[in-house]
Amino acid sequence: MTDLPKIVVTGASGRMGQMLCQTISQSNACTLVGAIERAGHDWIGLDIGVAMGGADMGVIVSDDALAAFAQAQAVIDFTVPEATIEFAAIAAQARAVHVIGTTGFTDEQIERLEPASRHSVQVRAGNMSLGVNLLTKLTQMVAKALDEDFDIEVIEAHHHHKVDAPSGTALMLGEAAAAGRGVALSDVRDAGRDGMTGARKRGDIGFAVVRGGDIVGEHDVMFAAAGERIVLRHMATDRVIFARGALKAALWGQSRGPGQYDMFDVLGL
After folding, report:
1. Looking at residue 201, what DSSP letter applies?
2. Does 38 show up as a binding residue in the annotation?
3. Annotated binding-site residue? 169
4. pLDDT grade, residue 1 (50/70/90)?
5. Which of 41, 137, 144, 162 is catalytic?
6. Which residues contact residue 68 at a Cβ distance below 8 angstroms, ignoring those fewer than 6 apart?
7. Residue 54 labeled ligand binder
8. 110: closest CA among 188, 40, 186?
9. Distance, CA of 205 to CA of 152 (rounded, Å)
10. Would you call 137 a catalytic residue per the annotation?
């Protein structure tokens, strides 16, 4: 029996779920002990490796999150908000680190995560990559340095399967820009432009969304003034960067007390 931290992956059949299972299985710092899918899914009862079209990994896909979490030290969760809220309560019961890469939360749903964090470590981020988190910090710094003569636009692009917009990362960048200017994003957010919208309001933070093909993830933060533009950019070409970041968060959380954390905490930013 290994002494390495044991990890469960929820949403195991999804793009990120499969990448996480592969990444964990190849790691020498932890071990995969559970793969969770919704009840009735075709993969239930199959070995996760076989279900993904590869070799047997010795982990059977299950819909019993409670049983799986009970044997784990960490859960990595890239699913949907309502499922994540349920998983948070179960992770709290198991005292397992809950790494949340799920996006698309409402403010009310985020509040519903808090009770579970009193009993377990929650690490939640709109994006788990090191590069994106550095971009977020740079965005805040640049927004703080520049006044409202510079319009701020967040432009993001993802594959055509993505269901939420703007992306969690785009919103994270918008929050960083707003924080740099000392305002709340909810007060200055400009999204969903269509038709005769009128001129852009000074001080607003705009969002533009692209969906197409197999784009993994691209994010630009543009600071545009008369005569000049500054563009901060991150381009992801492989989902493994998100899996590596989530795994780093799961291992980092092993030595922390209950509470809510983000990737800035994990990376010491």
Report:
1. P
2. yes
3. yes
4. very low
5. 162
6. 8, 33, 34, 35, 36, 62
7. no
8. 186
9. 5
10. no
Say whether 51 counts as a known binding-site residue: no
Tell me: is residue 128 an annotated ligand-binding position: yes
Identify any residues that bridge with 122 across adjacent strands, giving them in sequence order: 98, 260
Taking only the tens place, the pLDDT of each residue in 193-242 is 889 999 999 999 999 999 999 999 999 999 999 999 999 999 999 989 99
Which of 126, 218, 129, 220 minimizes the C-alpha distance to 175?
A: 126
Q: What is the pLDDT of residues 37-51, one digit of tens each?
A: 999 999 999 999 999
Question: Model's pTM, two decimal places?
Answer: 0.82
130-236: what fold?
A: Dihydrodipicolinate Reductase; domain 2 (3.30.360)
Pick the CATH number of 6-124+239-267 from 1.10.10.60, 3.30.1660.10, 3.40.190.80, 3.40.50.720: 3.40.50.720
CA distance 131 to 227: 29
pLDDT digits (tens, 9 = 90+) for 51-94: 999 999 999 999 999 999 999 999 999 999 999 999 999 999 99
- Identical fold between 6-124+239-267 and 130-236: no
Is 158 noted as a catalytic residue in this protein? yes
Catalytic entry in 6, 98, 158, 219: 158
Q: Where are the domains of the chain?
A: 6-124+239-267, 130-236
Helix (H, G, I), strand (E, B) or coil at 171: helix
How many helices and strands in the chain, by DSSP H and E?
A: 10, 12
Is 222 annotated as contributing to ligand binding? Answer: no
219 is in an annotated binding site: no
